[in-house]
Request: fold
Amino acid sequence: AQKVTQAQTEISVVEKEDVTLDCVYETRDTTYYLFWYKQPPSGELVFLIRRNSFDEQNEISGRYSWNFQKSTSSFNFTITASQVVDSAVYFCALSAPRGYNKLIFGAGTRLAVHP
Amino acid sequence: GAVVSQHPSRVICKSGTSVKIECRSLDFQATTMFWYRQFPKQSLMLMATSNEGSKATYEQGVEKDKFLINHASLTLSTLTVTSAHPEDSSFYICSASGGRAGGELFFGEGSRLTVL
Reply:
């Protein structure tokens, strides 16, 4: 069965702190994709990144970085020098493309960045 | 701009009425659309997979007769919540795929349903 675990329910940091959001996944598929989405209070999902199972290179995009490690089935997300605008719920998701592009979402981590 | 649009963004209805939510792909043909439900402070749960021209595939525990899904064209899928009750109040989000495996997924803005 596929499963995504985001063990951190809520994280509170002060602006400019670095914060890492954990994501652990389970799948029997050899080909799969991992995603991170941001959901601000308005509700829409903001796409952050997609990573396929064959690409273990870490990714950096501005203040955001992702660490994908197949050995530990983890796909962690780090925000460097956090800002108040980063406050949102962040979801990690897993897709197994067996003819469908269904996403299995983790429970989400609510990040609060305080001034 | 948005490539997947949902309408309405908010709807309030009385218990017992039916509500239709539309999900449109604006500039691509969506062979597959997905409907998710999100209760307050919870994660998104997949309700059903909608393929153009065929019956939707529902996830376990989702009532087919309660949540009617129609995907009559390559740019439109609709979710109808029939005989809505307060427990159906939720945030409903659709996503659309152009068919490429594993990627090119686009989410709509979501529709918040409140049943009084």
Remarks:
- Chain A has a mean pLDDT of 92.
- Chain A is about 0% helix and 50% strand.
